[in-house]
Amino acid sequence: MAIAQTGAPVSGGRNPGAAKRSLLDRLRPPELLFNLTSKEIKSQFKRTTLGRLWSFINPIATLTIYTLVFGFLLKSKPPVGAHGIENFTLYLASGLIPWTFISSGIMNGMSGVVANSGLLTKVYFPRWTLVVASILALANTFLIELSVVVVAMAVFIGPEVLLFLPLLFILIGITMAFCTGLALMLSVALVYFRDTQHFMVLFMQIWFYLTPIIYGIALIPKQLLGYYRINPAERLVSAYRSMLYEFRIPAWQDWAWSIGWAALALFVGIRVFDRYAARIVEEL
Amino acid sequence: MSNLLSGNPYGKPLSGNTAVSVDNVSKSFRIYAERNQNLKTALLRRKRAVYEDFWALRDVSLEIPEGSAFGLMGHNGSGKSTLLKCMARILQPNEGSIRTRGRLAAMLELGSGFHPELTGRDNVYLNGSILGMSRQEIDRKFEAITEFAGVGAFIDQPVKNYSSGMYVRLGFSVAIHVEPDILLVDEILAVGDMQFQERCAEKFAEFKEQGRTVVVVSHGLGELKTFCDTAAWLDHGKVVEIGPAARIVDQYIEAGHQAREVEGGGVRHGSGEIEIARIELLGGSASPDASAPEFRTGDQLTIRLHYRATSPITRPIFGVSINTIEGQHVWSHHTQDARFVPARLMGEGSIDIAIPAIPLQPGAFDINTSVVDESLSHSYDQWARGVRLDVMVGKPRESGGLVVMHSSWTNLQPPTAMAIDAR
Fold first, then answer.
1. N or C: which terminus of chain A carries fewer CB neighbours within 10 A?
2. What is the pLDDT of residues B251-292, one digit of tens each?
3. Which among A17, A25, A14 is positioned nearest to A273, based on CA atoms?
4. What is the layout of strands, in order, in the sheet containing B18-34?
5. Regarding predicted confidence, which is higher, B44 or A240?
């Protein structure tokens, strides 16, 4: 169901009014977004006995497994953090938790459109809200997890980590913009090619190992470092890690690359989504 | 393109009292001969897919005035639902444009936005905001919404526990409380129980009175005729005719066939010792070019039931009933009440029921037959919707409803000269 402004056209693809109108659409619905997000959050753990606890159990279990395998069995030596600390689990947490948000944000945002096809074919509302709402729902989980990480850092390394909270929020915003852009793009691709889903599962695995999460960046050969650091996830994860593990403000290059990637992803994502959003419904 | 030249991205503003303006709209769908929804085939073939364009709408133009009820009619595949979805902005036309004035809401499937695990309350807020209401607006209307839906204490239960009736009622209630200026309705006037249907009908009438516009897609011709002021008749994506609903519905029926088999042959059950093999409609006015007779209001009609009994049946009771195609029972008569009961039947034969003058308004009706035993408890054969009867405009010609009553307007006091002569 749509709220059309007075005299607003529903125009054909060749009508220059179309693009303008859909951009305007974007500005409308903070409440719709809020309600869609709370639907996602509420239904996330419905009918599970442990409910919300799962959003703690999952990351803790993953951290434990990686710590056992890489920390104890393979005896990976973690890079040095603030106050000279060398703790594999804390190092891992500072990178793994943000990475989980990046990867699940992209994956869930991507499925937002297809998962709600029943709704899309019956009601008109700005379709991008589905993608953004699923990312917002995950951001909610991410914030909870991150607060646990921050508390752990404060206890085990030092309370100065709390000074970085304002910057941390800015970084979360950048991360969400990056995920949203990519998810908008991929959600269109998924409508046309359903195996985008399977491809992305595979790709995410490769991406995970291309990003310094379970290992330190020092392992990368000097001559490859330039290429290695093109990876947007590397920049984002490094920025999180600077603040959470090393207790220092991320290098300006990390900010610049992160913002650049996020802006690019968002720009292309919106362009692609805008172009195809109107026709998506027929293909569902 | 003309918009670009005029420098106005929104096109020219709607004239005075037009609620919806459809300008030369065409819409095609891709019918995939070989659909490749995976990357491998797409990459190997280096093109997306082989498809043909199917034109669901071709160059459709119409204007719907504010405060009117507008009906869209046509056979399945005529494009009427596609047009409605284009108006609702769910689909985008390939060419042409649709302009609407004011808040617009579509009821295509009630409760389609509901999430089964969430409570009725959560779903009202979610659905309401999808339909474009603000939080305060929903807060304000919440009482009215639940009251109209009649879900009572269930409002805090997950909607998966709702009966299908409650589900639909809540969906309808949320949608109607959006209070749109333009309401688009697709074939959902026949939901819920009779009581709820009446309330829906009242609500729609209220809408019209408030000067809001309602656009309806429906198969129920009688419904369209009584509810709508204007109707458009679509066929294969093109407008055949637009005009006053009553006239368009009559023309539509006229263009259809007369006594015809119901698609799928109706529904039949019973033990089968005696069966109605065929229903024949006799009488009517023979049209010169049609092999089957046509039936008009006031025509004589004989319904002949050809029966076949495979074993001897004592005192069988034959019955015939007429329903509207929406299923409303109009009339029935059986041989027990008529005291016309044969002692015993065997083999093949026929029995007639004669109707001296069809007292029905123009419309489509289903004829049902039954053969039951003397106690009316055992069914030998029940054949629902065996034959469809299309009644066309005849004499007398009265305004609407199901029946004609041979009524006349008379006795104006004080006597005054008439503006137009009586027919």
1. C
2. 787 675 444 445 556 677 777 888 888 888 888 766 555 556
3. A25
4. A9-11, B95-100, B18-34, B50-65
5. A240
SS3 B204: helix
| Contacts of residue A32, Cβ cutoff 8 Å, sequence gap at least 6 | A125, A126, A129, B129, B130
Distance of CA B423 to the CA centre of its chain: 31
Residue A226: Cβ-neighbour burial (10 angstroms; 0-12, 13-18, 19+) = exposed
Check B3 against A17: CB less than 8 A apart: yes
Write the single-letter amino acid at B275. E
On whether the CB atoms of residues B304 and B268 are closer than 8 A, the answer is: no
Chosen for mutation from B51, B117, B129 (greatest number of chain A CBs closer than 10 Å) is B129
Structure-block tokens of residue B119: 């409570």
Contacts of B90 in chain A (CB under 8 A): 120-124, 281
| Interface check A27 vs B, CB under 8 A | no
| Interatomic CA distance for residues B138 and B173, integer angstroms | 12
Cross-strand bridge partners of residue B72: B217, B232
Torsion over CA of B45, B47, B51 and B55, rounded to 10 degrees? Answer: 180
Q: Return residues 89-118 of A near B (CB < 8 Å).
A: 118
| Chain segment B225-242, per-residue pLDDT in tens | 778 889 999 888 899 889
Q: Cβ separation of B106 and A123 shorter than 8 Å? A: yes
A218 touches chain B (CB under 8 A): no
Q: Which residue of B has its CA nearest to A191?
A: B37
In chain B, what residues touch A18 (CB-CB under 8 Å)? 92
The tokens describing B249, both together, are 């519905």
Is A37 near chain B, with CB under 8 Å? no
- Do A220 and A226 meet the contact criterion of CB atoms below 8 Å apart? no
Contact of A59 with A96, CB cutoff 8 Å: yes
- Predicted confidence at residue A280, as pLDDT, reads 84
Q: Is A198 on the interface with B (CB under 8 A)?
A: no
Closest chain B residue to A195 measured between Cα atoms?
Answer: B38
Nearest CB to A282; choose among B29, B98, B106: B29
CA B111 – CA B166 distance, rounded (Å) = 10
